[in-house]
Amino acid sequence: xxxxxxxxxxxxxxxxxxxxxxxxxxxxxxxxxxxxxxxxxxxxxxxxxxxxxxxxxxxxxxxxxxxxxxxxxxxxxxxxxxxxxxxxxxxxxxxxxxxxxxxxxxxxxxxxxxxxxxxxxxxxxxxxxxxxxxxxxxxxxxxxxxxxxxxxxxxxxxxxxxxxxxxxxxxxxxxxxxxxxxxxxxxxxxxxxxxxxxxxxxxxxxxxxxxxxxxxxxxxxxxxxxxxxxxxxxxxxxxxxxxxxxxx
Length: 248
Hints:
This protein is α/β, with parallel strands linked by helices. The protein has one domain (14-247): Rossmann fold (3-Layer(aba) Sandwich). It has helices spanning 14-18, 22-31, 36-52, 56-66, 79-92, 112-119, 133-142, 186-200, 222-230, and strands at 102-106, 123-128, 146-148, 164-170, 201-210, 234-236, 239-242. A seven-stranded mixed beta sheet has the order 3-2-1-4-5-7-6, with helices on both faces. α8 links the parallel β4 and β5 (201-210). The model is unreliable at 1-27 and 32-42 (pLDDT under 50).
């Protein structure tokens, strides 16, 4: 097992996260290309339906124990907020209307994306570090499989014994140095992409990144954008999408 380093999504502290209003959910939905005026009621109902599939006693226990936590990872205990955010991701990738896919989610955090994907008939595994207790507990609650692993520059990912139809990474931090001050350059990304395309992705599969570029965008520099474009990705802001060649 590799030494641990945070790969969970970055965000606000737990107090503000628990106080996040419905307006913020609408903003998140807009970011992922959802027509919010038409679907906000459906989203709300669907998130409640997903909550109904979760053991409520266990969820309340997790929320109670992490509500006063000083770490920003405690935000994930607000299950409805993160279900709504990941419903938008599922829709953007059209996983709510596609045939079953095998998914690898890099930096899977607490497993919300894979949990919803599973409810839509898909399967898969997450990859992330294992030292954030709230993420560990929620993954277990959701029944989401995770491989504990730290992604590092110029190191191959583990052998999962299978390849994947879809590889995702949402707002992760693996493309930064240990002190979070320096982003991967083109050499690091080339090595990483070679590994994904050659060892992890099925022929005709897709890769989707939602790059966490940082407030000053230094973690997604122009040279890396140009590399992604040369390697066939469609880029829209921080979204990077390698689609099947027949679709490009």
